[in-house]
Specification:
17 helices; Growth Hormone, Chain: A; mainly alpha
């Protein structure tokens, strides 16, 4: 039963990744259909992320009051509504309406499952969990590429919504599997408030690091396809859309590798190694040239390096700050991360519109450096609570 439950949790994380890469891969075509500038993708992305911030900040209270299984079911239902709404949107303003359930569905399921796995499973399971997010995020740009080739971008959103419905049905049918974990969850529901959690040494620094990490990650999510469209010539719309899966494929690969070695290597060393790989990927993207191959490998490496960072920081929360604070820490970390996701891709939209999208690797390098600096500062503030 435990293995079946873990399989369902993994599947729920596949569903979390499915919606995240659709906007970036579809936007070069959506922009033309709706007659808006390229930077307008940032406003939609910002709305989705803002709603995710709200649900992330609500997650400690939700975790305290409701079982994880119900948070998962309701959250996936909200994303289905958002995806179907996007598929029916013929005008730009309609995207904002359906961005509300789209974003609300992501934050709570992300925080609740991260909290559950961080408290009950190993770092290996956490990395495999986030690898499943990458599976979903890799699948959807390719679905969108097929939709652009054979139908329309609306169909891409609709097809992904149907997949989400199937995952939702499995989650509902699997509710009895959670019975054995219900008592353990009740024991974990003594959580500290956000105010007291912010006073714990190292928490604020990890929030800034998470902001930096997700600023770079979300910029890649939204603008990778547009980077190839703006810097490489002679590429088809379907090929450009498929490049949206590079960063997600890298995330999946990085987390898969981390899952096999994390229990031996440790979370901190995984994060440091990931940042080195990310830096190598940024250097490859910086190499000029008309061919897309070097940049494609670079973005794949960027995603691979980013892969273990998010799950490793989340997994360290109970050990670094204690189980009492872990729900609030994870909720705050995710809220901080989504603040980066909300604003920084939009900021990049304005920058690239005025300077050129070729500036993207420099932008990513800045946030990678900030991520490293503030994580190392957090480790020093925490002290020796967690092994290096």
């Amino acid at each position: 039963m435990g293995s079946l439950l873990l399989a369902v949790i993994y599947l729920a994380f596949v569903s979390l990744g499915l919606p995240d890469s659709l906007l970036g891969s579809a936007w070069p075509v959506m922009q033309g259909t709706m007659g808006v500038p390229s930077s307008y993708a940032g406003y939609v992305s910002m709305t989705i992320a803002f709603m995710t911030i709200i649900s992330s900040l609500m997650s400690p209270k939700l975790i305290q009051k409701f079982a994880t299984k119900w948070i998962v079911v309701v959250s996936i239902t909200l994303t289905v509504i958002g995806l179907l709404g996007f598929s029916c949107s013929g005008q730009y303003w309609m995207l904002f309406l359906f961005a509300i359930p789209y974003g609300l569905g992501a934050g709570s399921v992300d925080a609740s499952l991260n909290h559950y796995v961080a408290n009950h499973y190993s770092s290996r399971v956490m990395n495999f969990l986030h690898c499943c997010y990458g599976v979903g995020a890799v699948i959807s740009p390719n679905i969108m590429a097929l939709a652009l080739k054979y139908a329309h971008w609306n169909e891409g959103y609709r097809w992904v919504a149907f997949i989400q419905m199937g995952i939702l049905a499995i989650c509902i049918l699997s509710l009895p599997l959670w019975k054995t974990s219900d008592q353990a969850e009740r024991n974990d529901r003594e959580t500290a408030g956000i105010g007291s959690t912010l006073k714990v040494p190292g928490v604020a620094l990890t929030l800034i690091a998470f902001f930096a990490y997700c600023s770079g990650e979300a910029t890649c999510f939204l603008w990778t396809s547009s980077y190839f469209a703006g810097t490489k010539e002679g590429l088809s719309q379907e090929l450009i859309a498929s490049f949206g899966s590079l960063i997600f494929g890298g995330l999946m690969l990085g987390r898969l590798i981390a899952g096999f070695v994390s229990d031996r290597v440790g979370d901190r060393k995984l994060i440091r190694a990931g940042l080195v790989v990310e830096a190598l990927g940024i250097l490859l993207v910086l190499i000029p040239g008309a061919q897309y191959y070097t940049a494609a490998i670079g973005f794949l490496l960027i995603g691979t390096g980013m892969g273990p960072i998010y799950p490793s920081i989340q997994h360290m929360a109970p050990a670094n700050f204690g189980r009492k604070y872990s729900a609030s820490v994870i909720g705050l970390q995710m809220a901080s991360a989504y603040i980066g996701s909300t604003f920084m891709p939009t900021v990049f939209g304005f920058i690239q519109q005025n300077v050129g999208i070729g500036i993207m690797p420099i932008y990513l390098a800045v946030f990678a450096a900030l991520n490293f600096i503030f994580l190392e500062a957090a480790y020093r503030a925490i002290g020796k609570k967690y092994p290096v």
